[in-house]
Amino acid sequence: MNLRRTLALGSAMVALAAPALAQDRGLTYSLYGTPGLIDLPSAMAANDGQIAGTLALSQGESRTAFTFQMSPRLSGTFRYSSLQDYDAGSYYGRGLDLRYQLMDEDGWRPALAVGLQDFLQDSPYSGEYVVATSTIGDSFRVTAGLGWGRLGDYAGLADRLAAPSDGAVPADHWFRGTPALFGGIEWAPNERFLFKAEYDGSDGYRAADGTPLLDNRSPLNFGVTWRPKPGYQVGLAVLHGSEVALSGTLLFNPHDRPYAMGLDSAPVPVAVRGVAAAASWDRPAADLRTAITAALAADGFRVDSVELTDRAARIRYTNGTYRAEAQGLGRVARILTTLLPPGIETITLEPMRQGIALSAVTFRRSDLETLENAPGGTRAIFDRATFADAGGRAGLVAVPQDASRLSWGIAPYGSVAFFRGRDPISLDFGLQASARYSFAPNLVLSGAVRYSLISHDLPGSISSGPVQPVRRLSSLYSAEGNPGITNLQLTWYSRPGHNLYSRVSLGYFETMFGGVSTELLYSPVDTRWAIGAELNYVAQRANDGGLGFGGYCEAGGHDYCDPSDDHDYRTLTGHLSLYYGLSDQLQAQVDVGRYLAGEWGATVALDREFGNGWRIGGQVTVTDAHGLAGQDDYSAGIRISMPADFLYGTPSRGRSGASLGLYSGDAGSRLGVSGRLYDFVREGQVPDLETGWGRFWR
What we know:
This protein is mainly beta. The chain folds into three domains: 3-252, Porin (Beta Barrel); 278-402, 2-Layer Sandwich (GMP Synthetase, Chain A, domain 3); 488-688, Porin (Beta Barrel), CATH 2.40.160. The chain is 12% helix and 42% strand. The strands form three sheets. It has a 13-stranded mixed β-barrel. The chain has a twelve-stranded antiparallel β-barrel with strand order 1-2-3-4-5-6-7-8-9-10-11-12. Strands 13, 14, 15, 16, 17, 18 and 19 form a seven-stranded mixed beta sheet that branches.
């Protein structure tokens, strides 16, 4: 069938059914975890930023999917699938989908989307599609599309399987072969129920040898979705006249904060000169430094040093309370107007992290006085402020630190690993004792010991692989190193030059590796880009959780000790990194270098950062070890980071996160070391300050 004519016919069928004023009752998710009908996609796009987690079960098959609406038009899906009786065995696979909505629905014009399904590998699910969707009134929705690969005829799938891809589906084979039509209709009689019927014209759901993977008695599927309340969806469907499928979807959007406003305490009002008490104007400098230190400490700031002259003040401090460094700047500036002598007009604030200053932000005191309650005052104070690299220590007078150098605690911990091995979700819970000792603000010894109450099972044997097992045996460390030292490292941070930052770490960085890690970052304070270099020399730790090295055979006598592996593994690993802020919400990173298993390659990462502190990102790694026997062609995954103040509503710099691995193996693995520079240096520089500047007066 001619592709252009088929697309035109499908779009026309959908468009003719739609009136000019169609109303959308909300979309639902398919058994693949994507916006769609039952087992087929639609052209609908979720709300910007929406996250959907879907679990779908049918006879001999399960799918666990995570879908993120990365932008108003682009969405991505990570999926873990298991399929019984596939090529005389069981199939366990991880997949990635990308879908782009070319245009949304407008009057008689339908929404139109194009998608790539499980496109990083050749699997029973890989395919491509073009689909159109339109609503009818406020109760009906019609979808029609054209699919290839899994969604196409078997002849098209056979062409794909015969292609010399040796793993991944090459781009020149997308949208090739014999396509098939698909479509369906949805009816929503009320807000809670949605009834669906779809036509699946494909014959591509087969094993590599052509064996059908299901009893396809009919091309028709029927289902119903129940939405008991916002954020929850439950589905029941009959597939191809032979199988019953169940599904459940949880929805969440980082834009939807549980609190309308944060529960921050009210900031101190700016004191206008002439109103401030005269008794504070002639204080000795030492008394004034003491008053500044006490006042800022009461609001969650630790003062490092102060410089006072007749006309200017410079304060170097650490914000330990407020997530947005811009909010910290505003709070500190307000407090200083109540304490500084009236002759001081210039206030320079230098926020610090890990004992090093990140930037210098200078305000005119008169601007603070006139713009606090002025219309447009937030943007105006940003435009009038001066941003520069932090100055040297000349002129600064250190403030005595009353806080203890030692902090420690014992608390429960929880670790969730997604898409690892054959399990879509693996849990690890127990108790953790952690401690931190500061020899100086920029020289810190930290460590933690864990006792796992629920841990991963110890595998009976591990097959040999083409590269050193730097991650393949991580479950051995969890099982045999219990209790165990998870990390114990001494870290020194410094500022070796203008716009330069450095880190040197020594110790046990993670459960599997320890050694020496060095890093240098060049990050101009007012640019969106930075360049970093990291070099590490590490050795594989013994898997008993102690202080020894020597690899995973130290416990002795186990059949997972493959004689072909290096059990006293040591390696030099490192990367050159480019960081670039594509916008105030998109952050890109490219790393090129040598990975833990000794292979060379590159990682490309992209993170979406929300104004309320949420971060959701993904990355793809390709090395010269990928594609070898037992190794996937790519390593990929996504990461999620939630700020504590989003959940509790009270000020906090704490975070919690999770990661989901698309392909997990030894190739493409990077050393896990805490305290990497760019993660915190950027928070005090102009692009991040501008993004969070809306909180300056809060």
